[in-house]
Design brief:
CATH architecture of the largest domain: 3-Layer(aba) Sandwich
Number of domains: 2
Helix content: 25-40%
Number of helices: 13
Shape: globular
Strand content: 5-15%
Oligomer: single chain
Strand order of the largest sheet: 2-1-3-4-5-6
Distance between the termini: 15 Å
Structural class: alpha/beta
Radius of gyration: 21 Å
CATH class of the largest domain: Alpha Beta
Order of helices and strands: EHHHEEHHEEEHEHHEHEHEEHHH
């Protein structure tokens, strides 16, 4: 989309303050720049995280002041005051102050004047509390390289759309009731200040089930749905095996479909959305006040079936109309566009190569 630009980065804490902390607590930019300073020979391995950022020691020379640790670490280790000190420092220099938050739950940051990046941001809160909030992708491996030998498998356009979904959207009534009760407990804890992380506004598994039922009720749509009653079908491991049978079934469901239903889970974002694009499939994106990466420069509605929560009853007709409007050539080209979008903007290299577009 645009030429890369090198951003000068000043870390808001001294390197001595960061000594001994685990790498997982750092955001990508800080972790890469600290590694690069220790081992300059690793520059080529770090890709855009080395070429698009430059660590500086002079706060006045910096383009951005970066809080090197995630908001999750500051909250979990009771070090929120460190963020406040860094914010005041950044304001004195008149520099943008950048904070990353990870995980499913929304960051409730009690400071103003920051630029916050998180995957689960709500669009209606883009400028909440005097901050600027942007979405970041869920970073995933390249599915075409991992599962397809590096060759994008294109589908031919059929007379009716084939829509897929494999994931947590099923369960007995008592399982769904248990999930609903867990949500109520989370809401109470959040309201009373015992839990700092904001819960979903509705039970996501029940919502997913309702959305998929609407599509199944459409006779002109072929649905390939695999409904799990547990996350990842109950597969638990410290390090997930990308070739575990349940994972291969998940990927095959995408490969066998034209469109993939992408909607929120516990957090207000969809990892499936990025996996779908990586495989060159077309998302049916259910918008629940979602913020997507670079939505200030990208028009997502040209390459997805975009349906808001308020118009969810129209999801079947929207999918049919979209599919009917495409010629066979345009259908193939759109799959390639989806793949290209992930490569250029949502892979870890692509996202950080365009990071300067936020200013």
């Amino acid at each position: 989309m645009t030429d890369e630009k090198v951003l000068a980065v000043f870390l808001s804490h001294s390197v001595s303050d960061l000594h001994g902390l685990e790498p997982k607590h750092f955001n990508d930019i800080a972790r890469a720049q600290l590694e690069l300073r220790r081992e300059p020979a690793r520059a080529a391995d770090l890709g855009s995280l080395a070429t698009c950022f430059r660590l500086v020691d002079d706060p006045q020379e910096a383009d951005i002041h970066l809080l090197p640790l995630t908001w999750n670490w500051y909250v979990g280790s009771s070090r929120v005051q460190m963020v406040g000190e860094a914010v005041e420092q950044g304001k004195r220099w008149g520099k943008p102050i950048v904070l990353f938050s990870t995980g499913d739950y929304t960051a409730k940051v009690p400071f103003s004047g920051l630029t916050i990046f998180q995957p689960c941001a709500y669009r209606s809160r883009r400028f909440e509390n005097g901050n600027r909030v942007f979405a970041m992708p869920a970073f995933i491996p390249d599915f075409v390289q991992l599962y397809c030998g590096g060759q994008l498998p294109l589908r031919q356009k059929g007379p009716r759309p084939v829509v897929g979904f494999c994931g947590l959207a099923g369960g007995k009534w008592y399982q769904l009731a248990y999930r609903w009760m867990k949500l109520q407990a989370h809401r109470a804890a959040f309201r009373l200040g015992f839990n700092p992380w904001e819960p979903p506004p509705f039970e996501p598994t029940i919502f997913r089930r309702r959305v998929l039922a609407l599509l199944e009720a459409c006779p002109d749509i072929e649905c390939k749905f695999i409904l799990r009653d547990r996350y990842r079908a109950g597969y638990r491991a410290p390090k997930k095996d990308p070739f575990h049978p349940t994972r291969l079934e998940y990927v095959q469901n995408m490969l066998d479909s034209d469109y993939i239903v992408c909607m929120r889970g516990g957090g207000n974002f969809s990892v499936r959305f990025y996996e779908t694009l990586s495989l060159g499939r077309i998302p049916v994106f259910v918008d629940t006040d979602c913020m997507l990466p670079y939505d200030h420069v990208l028009d997502y509605r040209t390459m997805t079936i975009w349906i808001t929560k308020e118009k969810i009853l129209e999801i079947g007709s929207a999918l049919k109309a979209f599919h009917s409007s495409l010629t066979s050539d345009v259908f193939s080209h759109l799959q390639q566009q989806c793949r290209q979008l992930w490569q250029e903007m949502f892979s870890i290299t692509g996202f950080y190569a365009h990071f300067h577009l936020h200013w």
